[in-house]
Amino acid sequence: MKLAMVGLGAMGGGIARRLLSSGFPLTVHNRTAAKADPLIEAGAQWAAQPQDAARDSDVVMLSLSDERAVDEVLFRRMLPVLKPGTVVIDTSTTSAAYANSASERLAAHGVRRVELCLLGNPEMAAQGRLRLFAAGHQQDVAEVENVLAAIGEELRYLGPPGTACTMKLAFNLLLGVQTVGLAEAVALGVRSGLDRTMLINAITSSGFCSPALAFRAAFMRRESYEPAAFRTRLMVKDLRLAASDARSAGLTLPVCASAADRLDEAVGAGHGDEDAAVVVETSLGS
């Protein structure tokens, strides 16, 4: 099996590390070439362009930032060279409608798409400990199950295209709201005279804390937000997508919208590429 990984951000890089350590021959591409250097040292082949990674591959994994990136990288640059029967495993978070359309567009060229919701952080990806929720044709998911088993300790099949993206948006909605809630709780305590580290430690050792919240709290405790595990601008993007999909379903999500606005303040303050936990700093400053 010829396998390619395109997009080596926090999660994509972790996935690529795991695939290499699991013995898969891997070709990699990233817009910022330097991010591939540790992977090349570990045995990956470098492709200067995404179409070079895609050409002759049996399976192509994508980890891209948004729908515009998918349009550019997958549809404009890679699709013309993908051979019929190729499986594209797309881990990019998009709207459900876009995901469904992407599957149809690829199918028109004989290319199959497995949509993958990833739950976990970059280190969990590198350790093969992600939880995976897949959508698309079930036989296509089964065909790449050996790849998925390398990066995840749990795999669930959800159904048709769009369902994995909906699952991801639901989880990211919860994460975004919790992150903003934690930031405001810390801001309240610190402004009222509590010691920052003591307060964060008290929260993370309480029944109010989840593993995901503890992970964000560690950034807040260190007051250091790079390298980001989940960039602030991408969390805003996902919350806006969740709110948009909700409107399409006849719902309003006021808490989600408020959290997106709060995070957008951090982006506007120049923190868009830092971890979303940086929202505590703009909360303290407001």
TrEMBL record:
Residues 162-280 form the 3-hydroxyisobutyrate dehydrogenase-like NAD-binding domain. Gene3D superfamilies: N-(1-d-carboxylethyl)-l-norvaline Dehydrogenase, domain 2 (1.10.1040.10), NAD(P)-binding Rossmann-like Domain (3.40.50.720). InterPro entries: 6-PGluconate_DH-like_C_sf, 6PGD_dom2, 6PGDH_NADP-bd, HIBADH-like_NADP-bd, HIBADH-related, NAD(P)-bd_dom_sf. It holds the Pfam family NAD_binding_2. This is NAD(P)-dependent oxidoreductase. The active site is at 168. Belongs to the HIBADH-related family. GO terms for molecular function: NAD binding; NADP binding; oxidoreductase activity. Residues 2-159 form the 6-phosphogluconate dehydrogenase NADP-binding domain. The keyword NAD applies. The keyword Protease does not apply. It comes from Spongiactinospora rosea. Keywords: NAD, Oxidoreductase.
